[in-house]
Every structure is written in structure tokens, then in C-alpha cells.
Design goal:
2 copies of one chain form a homodimer. Chain A is built from 11 helices and 11 strands. Helix content of chain A is about 35%, strand content about 25%. In chain A, helix 3 packs parallel to helix 4 and helix 5 packs across helix 6. Chain A folds into 2 domains: about 130 residues, 60s Ribosomal Protein L30, Chain: A; about 160 residues, Phosphoribosyl-aminoimidazole Synthetase, Chain A, domain 2 (Alpha-Beta Complex), CATH 3.90.650. In chain A, helix 4 links the parallel strand 3 and strand 4. In chain A, the strands form 2 sheets. The first copy, chain A, has a 6-stranded mixed sheet with strand order 7-9-6-10-8-11, with helices on both faces. A 4-stranded mixed sheet of chain A has the order 2-5-3-4.
């Protein structure tokens, strides 16, 4: 940041004007100031009618888009740095679920006003995530409008190696990374619908606000897994996508589902089964790869738990530790439900 | 459309309920019903965590994103079919300005409610444009929120053949396709700031609502042109992008600028110079290719006019037919200005 801008910002802060829409009025200036960083793996980035990228030989391109809207995906006055991180992280999660290497992103953002403080924090959060996972921001759009963020993420994978939802086979183990339900518990806390211990509350809100996509873990999966999805709408809903696409069923063991102590002791399993925003990887793999998966888990320091098995039944069943059926709702997050 | 759905729609129409949010409540159903079409050039389309595309040998990928927000880019109650067409068309225009072949799009849309009539018309408009220019819709997102449409478009071009803004050379002719200023005159008519004859009014509003991107024309340009941009923010602003990127200047001949008779007779050149939403191609080419460009113009039936020349001056000048300088404002469309 230039010295002059710094001085003006300090002055405005002293005058209590720091959040006013100031100085940067042009869309082009805005893009240049906050969203143009040096790219590392892009032929042509921001600044022309389009960006240009080159795909490695024998590779194909994997693409996904996600939109985050204020009041729907995040509450008003969400910390802009967290929002910047999360906007990119949730997209990375989709590419990881294909077993691919995410590399490029476009960011379209509509803003009610040009607020330099907000924009600076947002772009810091965004680029913190981009740097961690080696992503180039190659294009996008900025416009006036209600706060909404739309990202398209692109990645590479060797031809025919992508992990689809449709590849699960009867007898496959069902695995999931991390812990489920923390983010939805975090949301319930913020909405004052749930009380948790201070430590757990902090952990859950962190899961909600700055989820960590399982990029490096996802890259190892094509060697062993048969199908994969990221858990964004709730375990049951996302597992249903796998079972429907693969034309199989599934049995889960409730006590194996990785979740925090508060869920286990209070039996509030609905957070782990139907809560959204987990951004963990749910995948299936033949039994013979069990030890390989445990090794990856150790190496990447990502907890990975076998939670069930793919069956020839037409639906999903959940069993308790005595082998008795557990009743549950098959209802995940749906914006229009 | 199923017979049952048709009957229900007729019934609702009779009951005056045709615009109510009905029946389709799930995000997945919505995507399936309105946005899933058979793809022609895509390995994996909508329905998994990400789409997969393959790039031809010796080609690179060209990517652009645009966001359209209600109240900013289009007025409330815009015909949804026109909006569907335009959302895709403005993105195609960016890929054409690179000289590339657009092939794939992702569409993220936030909607205040699920209105089947609106969605049907929007998707019809979108796919009409997609069909005309052979575009596969390969992914995206649907969510609740203020009406906003975000598209990422991807195209292919042979390696190192893209037309950049930075390629203009001193002595190049400056060319533009079509007529400039019609769309901004159309908008002024709708806003009741301008009166036009009924025929011209219809033409201008059509230019505004359903612009036709110059896809086939753009594909021929890399053989002759040195630089290109699409005119979306106004001729002067977009030409400035070329002159600044290429570190050159430009002289334009006001009487050569292609525009409708109302602009010429009333001398309201600001519509042609600064009006947005034209989606014509502005390009520069060495003089020796003049006849080639005129041949392409005839073949593609796209009027193409030589409007000026690239100079070694530091800025843009406009001359009248006597060679006298015309004063003008360098001000195009900017969402935050």
C-alpha cells in the first residue's frame, strides 16, 4: 500500500470515516489494487478480455463453480477475511473430491459499495487460501449489487483418473476425512440455538468460518478410491449422491462416524448426519486398500475413518453398536427447501 | 415437458397463479429440470463435484467471467428469455475478442424464489444462444438470493494465436464491427430519456436486450488482426484499453464511426463513443490486410468499418471531416463511478 493511501486511511480512521466508501471509484482501479497478484502457472492473467491457461500433456481440465450470497451462505457482517478464505476453500473442496490438482480461479463479486477496508481484508483472506494451495486468480468481474461472491475453480488431472460419484462398488469401504457436524454446530452457536463449552464453540465456529479443504489428501485418492464427493450438504445427502449415481446402497455404523464429544454424549447425531458446510471428503475404496488409506492419513495428518460399507440394498441404513437399525432423517442442506 | 406438468400449468394460469413459486422446491430438481441438456463436446457435464473437459492438442484454454445483477445490468422485470440470451451472449463476446472458439460455460444464478415460468423462459433464452454458438453448459450453482447471474465461459484457441489488447502497432487501421450506440439508445428509450421513431426504437431495444456476439467473425481475426477487444463499456473506454496496453495512441474519424441515422443527424455521438453494451469487436490490423478484412465482412455478413488509425501519440484524438479536432469525454460505463 502506498504511503499516501496509508496516511489518508489513518486520517479517515481518526475522523471515524474508515468504513465509508472512499477514493477508489473505478472498477479497473479496484481490480488492480485488490485482486491482481503475480501468477505462477498462468499464461495470461487478469487484464485482457479473457485469461489463457495451458493444460499439461495427457491431462484434462476439471471445473466447478460455487456462489455465496449474503444472508444465505454467510450472515451479514461476516469477517471479510474469513469470507475471502471460505469462498475459495469451498470451491477447492469440489476439485479435491475429483482427486484433481486445483490451479486456477476466477472471482466475480458484487458489492453494495466500494469499502477499501472490507476489500483489503476480503482479498487478504482470499489470497491467504490461494497461496496455501497454490492457486492463481486469473479473472473475474466486479460490480455494484447485493453482496455475493461467485467463483469458478479449475484444476488438472491425468486423463481418465478423476474420481466420480458413480464409481462406488458393492463391498467398498466408506471413508470420511476429519470430523463431521462441527460447522453446523458452529452456526447453531452463532444463531444462539446451541450452547457449547468455550473450547468446542471456538473450534466449531472456526470450522464454519475457515474450513480447510482436503486438497493434498484428495490428490492421493485416485490410486485407491473408487468414488468420492465432498461433504458440503450433510453426510447423508452427499452419500445419497454416491449411492444413487453408483446404483448401490450403503450401511453406516453410527458409532464410527467421526464427530466431537458433544455430539456423541448428547446423541445429537443430526449435526453429523445432516449438518452442512463440513468440506470433508467422503469416498469409497476396496477393502484391500485399507492399510494404504491409513498410511496416507498418517502422512497427511488428516484423520480418516471407515464409517461403513457399500451394499447391494436400494438405500442407506445406519446401525448402532448392537447392529440395530437407527432411524434418521435423509435431509441435508437445500437452499430452496 | 410432461403432460401432467403442462396440465398443472394451464390450471394455474386459469387460476391466475402462474407466477407463484410452485412445485419444484429442491435445488437438485431445479438444476435437472431446467439446466441439464445433452452436451456435445464435454467429457463430464452437470451432476458430479466438477465437470471434465479435454483440450485439443496444441491448443490452449481461454477463460472469462461476467456477472449480471438486477438493477445494475438489467432492469427489474426484464423478459427472462432475453436475460438468458444476453447473460451468455456478453460472455461469448469476450472469448470472441480473443479470436477463440467458445465451447463451455458454467452458470451460477441466485434467485429470490423458484418461479417455474421465469426459469423456463430464462433457460430457453440461455439455451437458444448456447445452441446457436454451440456451447455446452457444464456446471454451475443455484441458490436463493437477489437475482444475479454469474457465468464463466471457456474456449479454445491454437497455442499463441490469441488476440490481446497489447498487440496494436503504430500504423494499424482501427476497425469495428456493426453499429455503435444502439444499445445505450435503447436503454435511454426504456428510461424515457430519449424519443426515437418506432422502427429505430425497436432496433435499439433489441440491441440492448439480445445482443449478438460476433463469434464467427472473431474466429477469423487472428490471421489478420494485431489486437482486439469487445466494445462493452463504450468505444473510447475500450479503445483506451488497447492504446494503454499497446503503449500507442489513436486517431478516430468521427464521420466513419458506424452508427444509426438519429445519432448522425442529431450529432449525439456520445451514444456511439461512450454508450455501453454494444458487444461489437474493436480491432487493429496492418493496412495490407484491409481487403482481407472486407472479404471476411462480406462472407460473415457482419458490417465492418475502418474508423481510425493507431498513432505514436500518447492519447486518443477524434477528427471531423475537415481534419479538425472534435472535443469528447473519455468516459465509459463504470459500475462504481
Amino acid at each position: 500500500m502506498g504511503l499516501l493511501l496509508k496516511l489518508i486511511l489513518i486520517l479517515l480512521k481518526l475522523l471515524g470515516l474508515k468504513n465509508k466508501s472512499i477514493m477508489i471509484t473505478s472498477e479497473f482501479e479496484l481490480i488492480k489494487r485488490y485482486f491482481t497478484k503475480k501468477n505462477r502457472q498462468t499464461k495470461l492473467g487478469i487484464g485482457d478480455d479473457a485469461a489463457i491457461i495451458q493444460i499439461q500433456k495427457n491431462h484434462e481440465l476439471v471445473i466447478s463453480s460455487d456462489m455465496l450470497v449474503e444472508g444465505i451462505h454467510f450472515i451479514k457482517n461476516t469477517n471479510p477475511s474469513h469470507l475471502g478464505w471460505k469462498s475459495l476453500a469451498v470451491n477447492l473442496s469440489d476439485i479435491s473430491a475429483m482427486g484433481a490438482q486445483p490451479k486456477w480461479a476466477t472471482l466475480s463479486i458484487s458489492l453494495p459499495k466500494v469499502d477499501p477496508i472490507w476489500l483489503k481484508k476480503f482479498s487478504q483472506g482470499f489470497f491467504k487460501c490461494a497461496k496455501k494451495f497454490n492457486i492463481d486468480l486469473i479473472g473475474g468481474d466486479t460490480t455494484k449489487g447485493p453482496l455475493s461472491i461467485s467463483i469458478t475453480i479449475m484444476g488438472e488431472i491425468k486423463k481418465n483418473k478423476s474420481l466420480l460419484r458413480s464409481g462406488a462398488q458393492i463391498g467398498d469401504d466408506i471413508w470420511v476425512t476429519g470430523e463431521l457436524g462441527n460447522a453446523s454446530m458452529g452456526l447453531a452457536c452463532l444463531q444462539r440455538k446451541l450452547k457449547l463449552s468455550p473450547t468446542l464453540k471456538t473450534k466449531c465456529i472456526k470450522s464454519l468460518q475457515t474450513p480447510v479443504p482436503k486438497v493434498f489428501f484428495g490428490l492421493t485418492l485416485p490410486r485407491y478410491a473408487k468414488s468420492c464427493i465432498d461433504v458440503s450438504d450433510g453426510l447423508i445427502q452427499d452419500l445419497t449422491h454416491i449411492t444413487k449415481s453408483s446404483k448401490v446402497g450403503a450401511t453406516l455404523f453410527i458409532e464410527k462416524i467421526p464427530c466431537n464429544a458433544a455430539i456423541k454424549t448428547s446423541k445429537k447425531y443430526h449435526y453429523a448426519l445432516n449438518g452442512g458446510d463440513d468440506y470433508e471428503l467422503l469416498f469409497t475404496a476396496p477393502k484391500k486398500y485399507s492399510s494404504h488409506i491409513q498410511k496416507i492419513s498418517k502422512k497427511t495428518k488428516i484423520i480418516t475413518t471407515r464409517i461403513g460399507v457399500i451394499t447391494n440394498q436400494p438405500s442407506i441404513s445406519i446401525l448402532d453398536r448392537h447392529g440395530k437399525l437407527v432411524s434418521f432423517k435423509n435431509k441435508g442442506y437445500d437452499h430452496f427447501a
